[in-house]
Amino acid sequence: MSERAAYDPQAFGGDLEGLPFPEDFLWGGATADFQYEGGFGEGGRGLLSHDFETGGDVTTPRRVSLRLADGSRGFVTSEEALPEGSEPALYDNVYYPSHKAVDFYHHHGRDIELMGELGFNVFRFSVCWSRIFPTGLEEEPNEEGLAFYDHVIDELAEVGIEPLITICHDEIPAALAAKCDGWAGRETIDAYVRYARTLLERWKGKCRLWLTFNEINILCGYPMIGTREQDDQTIYQAKHHMMVASAIVTKLAHEVDSRNLVGTMYASSELYPRDCRPENVFETLRVKRETLFFIDVMAKGAYPNYADDLLARRDVALEMEPDDVRTLAEGTLDFVSFSYYRSNVCGVGSELRRHGILGAENNPHLETTSWGWAVDALGLRILLNELYDRYQKPLFVIENGLGAIDVREPDGSVHDPYRMRYLADHLREMKKAVLIDRIPVIGYTMWGSTDLVSLSTGEMKKRYGFIYVDMDDEGKGTLERSKKDSFRWMQKVIEGNGAYLPSDMETLDDDIEEVEGEFALGNDDDLDLGTDN
Ligand code: BGP
Question: Is 35 helix (H, G, I), strand (E, B) or coil?
C-alpha cells in the first residue's frame, strides 16, 4: 500500500475534512451470487444449497423445503437439522429468492456501467460454485459458467474496476452436499480446492484479490454449509475442514501468482460489556473470542490458547489429520476482512444466537434500524483498532451499509438521506482509523451497492443500494435499475477519494456552490465535484 496521507491535527483543527484517503484506497460495492445473480438453470448451473430456501421476514424465518421420508412436503428453518430420510426438494408454487435474485445474470452490462459511473475501482462478487462445477463432483469445470464470469471480469476492466472474488459465499452445490454431508465430510476439501484452483488459474493476472469464505464464524444450517445436522460437533468439524481448505487455497493462490492477496471474511459485531461489572467484561471477552476464533486460526496459522476451553464448553472433539497443523501454518491470510453493520451489548446470560453473534440486547445509547440492528459508526473505528492490534495485517472493510425501506417516487427518484448519513458517519470513523490511528485499510466495499435479496430474511424491501432495482418481495417487478440520491452522493465521495464526507446531498451541493472550487479537497486541484449527472 502507498504512503498514507499526512495528517497534521494542527492544520486541520483535529478535523479530517479535506483530507483524502491514501491514493490506492479501494472503493466499491459487494454482492453474493445467490442474492444477486439469478440465472437459475441457465448456462449449465447446477442446483445450489440456497436454491431450496424460501423467503421470510423480520419475524418469519426463512425455511428449506423438503421431501420428507414418507414422500410428503416439509419445511425446516434454515438453521435446523434436516429430519431423517428427508431431502431438499423444490415445489412449483413456492417462491425461492435465489432463482432469480435480481438477475445480474442478464443485467451485468447495465450494472457494471453504473458501477463505473459511480467511480468504483473494485467490485466484490462471489462465483456461484454450482455454475462452475454443477454437482461439485465433476473432474472438469463447466466452460459456459466460466465464460459468464470472463465477461463480467472483462466488462469490469473496461470501466477500470478490479474484481475481488469471494470463492465461496455461504453455499455448496446441492449434489456435493448430499454426497459428503456438506462441509462435515472431509472429501469436500478436495472438491473445493479443485474448484478454487480452476478460478485461480483461469483469472491469473486478471484478479489479485480473493476471499476463500464469507462470514466463516456465523455459518450454520443446510443452505450455508450443506450439513444435515446442526449441532456444535458437526458445525465445528465442518469449519475445521473449511479452515484447512482455506489454508490450502491460500498457499495455492500464492503459487499460482505471487501477486495474489488472499483473505477470508468474518461477521463482526463490536461488543460492549453491559456495564463495568468485571463478570460482564469477562463474558464480553469470552464472546469476542467466539467471534474471532476462526480468524485467529486463519490469520495466525494455529488454534489459539483458548481453543480447548471454547471447544470443551461446546462439547466438541475435533478430528484432525496429522498434516492439518502444518497446512494451517503454511496458509495464513494476507489480510483480514470483515462485515460490519452494528455493535452489540454483552454480559453474563447474553443469548448467543450463532457463534459469537448475539441476540439483540438494547444499547440505550444507540438507535436501531427497522431490522433492530444498532447503528454505531464509532464501533467501526474501535473494531479496526482492535483487529490491527491483534493481527498486524492489513484490513479490508468488506461489507457495511444500511438496510432500509426505500420509496420510489412516481418520477423514478429515490430520496435516501438516511443512507448518506449512515455512510458518512461510518466513512468518517474509518478515515480517523486510517489517518489518525494509522491503521492500514485496503478498501471499503459497501454491501449490496445494487439492491439485492436479503440474506437473513429473503426480502427485497431491505435495500442497501445506491442503485434501486424494481422488484418486490415476491420477485415481481420490471428489474429496471435507477439511481437513488445516494448514488450521486457516493460518486462525489469517491471522486474526492473520501476527502469530503457530508451527510447528505443538499449539504454537499450547498458547500460546493459556496466555495466554488476554493474548497481544499486534498491536494488535488483538478478535482471536479461540481459535475452533476
Ligand atoms: C452478511 C452477508 C451478506 C449480506 C449481509 C446483509 O451477513 O455476508 O450476504 O446479506 O450480511 O445481511 P442481510 O441481507 O440479512 O441484511
Answer: helix
DSSP string, 363-397: -TTS-B-TT-PBP-HHHHHHHHHHHHHHH-S-EEE
| Letter string b/e over residues 165-199, b meaning 16 or more CB atoms within 10 A of that residue's CB | bbbbbbbbbbbbbbbbbbbbbbebbebbbbbbbbb
Residue 123 three-state SS: strand
Cut 0.85: pTM above it: yes
Output the residue whose Cα is nearest ligand 1's atom 10. Answer: 455
Q: Which domains, ranges and CATH numbers included, belong to the chain? A: 9-43+98-520 (3.20.20.80)
Distance CA 212, CA 244 (A): 11
What does the pLDDT look like over 179-221, one tens digit per residue? 999 999 999 999 999 999 999 999 999 999 999 999 999 999 9
Give the E-state strand segments of 171-221 in sequence order.
209-211
Secondary element (H or E) of residue 232: helix 232-256
How far, in Å, is the centroid of ligand 1 from the Cα of 35?
A: 9
DSSP state of 70: T
d(CA 450, CA 329): 38
Rounded to 5°, angle at Cα 530 from 525 and 533: 135
The average confidence (pLDDT) of the chain is: 92
Is 2's pLDDT higher than 50?
no
Copy the grid coordinates of residue 246: 482455506
Which positions ≥6 away from 90 have C-beta within 8 Å? 51, 52, 65, 96
**Site of grid cell 447446477:** 46
Catalytic residue among 155, 399, 429, 495: 399
Is residue 262 classed as helix, strand or coil in its secondary structure?
Answer: strand
Q: Which ligand 1 atom sits closest to the C-alpha of 371?
A: 16
Nearest CA to ligand 1 atom 11: 455
Q: Which of 53, 155, 215, 429 is catalytic?
A: 215
Contact 252, 196 (CB under 8 A): yes
Distance between terminal CA atoms of the chain? Answer: 32
CA 17 / ligand 1 centre spacing (Å): 31
- 529 close to 492: Cβ distance less than 8 angstroms: yes
Closest by CA position to 448, among listed 477, 469, 417, 429: 469
Residue 341: partners with Cβ closer than 8 Å, 6 or more residues away: 269, 373, 399, 400, 401, 403, 447
What pLDDT band is residue 502 in, cutting at 50, 70 and 90? confident
